[in-house]
Specification:
Layout lengths: L2 H4 L16 H9 L9 E4 L2 E4 L5 H17 L4 E4 L15 E5 L15 E8 L3 H5 L1 H8 L4 E6 L4 E9 L6 E9 L3 E6 L2 E7 H4 L2
Parallel strand pairs: 5-6
Antiparallel strand pairs: 1-2, 3-4, 4-5, 6-7, 7-8, 9-10
C-alpha cells in the first residue's frame, strides 16, 4: 500500500452543504481563466465533477459516433461532439449531440432547452454515472431522446419520454438495441436514419 492509499479519507465527505455553483458562476470562472481547458471538469447539478479519461474503446466509439452522426444529420440539425450544453444547474459535455440549428447558431451560446434533439453518452467506466445522475439531469431538462452507448454490454440504451416532474426526474421508456440491431435516430418524432450498433461499438 502506498502512503497516499494508507491515509484516512478526508472528514469533508461526511459534511453536508457543499457550495454549489450556478451556471453563471461557472461561466465566469471560465471567462476569468480560473478554469481552463487543462481542467478536465464539467458542471453537474452545481458541482464540478472530474471528467473520466478516455480509454481506447471509448475513444474509438466516440470517433465512430462522430462519423455516423455527421453522415446522417439533416441539414437543419447540428452535430456536436464532446461540447457543452447548458441546463438549469449543469453544463455537461455529452460525447455526442444533435441539436437544432446551423453552423452559426451556437457562435455566442451553448445549446439549451428546445434546441435538443438527441444527446449521447459513450459509457465504459462511466456507465453508472451515465445511467444514473446524467440521465436524471437530461430528463429534468426535457431532452427528448438520450442514448447511452454501453460498451461493456455491447448495446445502445435509448431513453425517451422524459418526466421532468418526477422525483427524481426520469425517462419513462428505455429500449435496448443489441449488437445485431440498428438504432433509430429520431428527431421531433421522425426517424431520420438508423445506425447499426455494430458500426458504433468496437
Amino acid at each position: 500500500m502506498t502512503p497516499a492509499q494508507s491515509q484516512p479519507p478526508s472528514p469533508l465527505y461526511a459534511v453536508a452543504g457543499f457550495f454549489r455553483l450556478t451556471v453563471d458562476q461557472y461561466h465566469e470562472m471560465i471567462r476569468n481563466n480560473t478554469l481552463t481547458t487543462d481542467d478536465r471538469v464539467e458542471l453537474l447539478d452545481g458541482y464540478l465533477v472530474n471528467k473520466m479519461p478516455q480509454n481506447t474503446p471509448h475513444a474509438s466509439c466516440t470517433q465512430r459516433l462522430s462519423r455516423l452522426l455527421y453522415r446522417h444529420a439533416p441539414a437543419d440539425w447540428v452535430v456536436r461532439i464532446q461540447l457543452p450544453v447548458t441546463l438549469a444547474k449543469s453544463e455537461p459535455e455529452p460525447d455526442g449531440a444533435l441539436v437544432r440549428g446551423n453552423d452559426t447558431t451556437y457562435d455566442h451560446r451553448h445549446p439549451t432547452g428546445t434546441d435538443f434533439g438527441v444527446l449521447v453518452e459513450v459509457a465504459d467506466s462511466s456507465l453508472a454515472l451515465d445511467r444514473g445522475p446524467k440521465a436524471v439531469l437530461y430528463a429534468r431538462a426535457g431532452v427528448p431522446v438520450y442514448w447511452v452507448v454501453n460498451i461493456p454490454d455491447r448495446q445502445v440504451e435509448v431513453y425517451t419520454d422524459p418526466d421532468p416532474a418526477a422525483n427524481p426526474a426520469a425517462y419513462r421508456t428505455r429500449t435496448d438495441f443489441g449488437i445485431a440491431d440498428a438504432v433509430p435516430v429520431v428527431l421531433d418524432g421522425v426517424t431520420v436514419a438508423t445506425l447499426p450498433v455494430a458500426d458504433l461499438i468496437p
